[in-house]
Specification:
single chain; two-stranded antiparallel sheet; mainly alpha; 3% strand
């Protein structure tokens, strides 16, 4: 159980697609000293709308682009990073259509052959869903620099996202430090 800005998140809530965006928003609101009503007002939606997203009555991956853009501005992050957090973009979107299941199986097989990482893969990893396996493959790629799942263009996009998120965080931290001095 996790508590963010006065809202409890159990394992069921945390397993819903796109809930990562909601947690990020609530954490940022908490950091700013805002309650959920203030967050909703800032995002130009109602308190009820935010709570429907929190409680699963509305699906986060089905929110509007306008809402995603408001979230990106609030989080000081690229819209595409918010789309990933919202579940609009998944690890399957990083491979060519129709290749995802095959590429994912091949990636896990390749990781199994790696003497440093293979022994650490759970024996039943092949039985997990494709998103989990793709996540493992992407983590492996990030850790080793070896491309086992995505092509160069997807890796370039992921690298650009990493840089953009890092720059956004650094700018936000600088702004906070400047505001503290004032």
């Amino acid at each position: 159980m996790v508590m963010v800005n006065g809202i409890e998140f159990d394992s069921e809530k945390l397993s819903r697609p796109g809930i990562g965006l909601i947690v990020l928003l609530l954490e940022e609101a908490e950091r700013r000293g805002q309650d959920v009503k203030s967050l909703a007002l800032t995002l130009n939606v109602t308190y009820g709308y935010v709570m429907q997203l929190v409680n699963g009555m509305r699906q986060v991956p089905l929110v509007t682009r306008e809402f995603l853009c408001a979230c990106a501005e609030y989080l000081d992050a690229p819209v595409i990073a918010v789309m990933v957090a919202a579940g609009f973009i998944t690890s399957r979107d990083l491979v060519k259509p129709g290749q995802a299941p095959t590429r994912i199986r091949e990636a896990i097989a390749e990781i199994r052959q790696d003497p440093a990482f293979g022994p650490w893969l759970p024996g039943n990893v092949e039985a997990t869903d494709d998103d989990t396996k793709a996540f493992l493959a992407l983590c492996y790629q990030k850790a080793t620099g070896r491309q086992v799942l995505t092509d160069d263009s997807a890796m370039d996009l992921m690298a650009e996202l990493d840089v953009a998120l890092g720059l956004a965080r650094a700018a936000s931290q600088r702004e906070e430090q400047e505001n503290e001095r004032v």
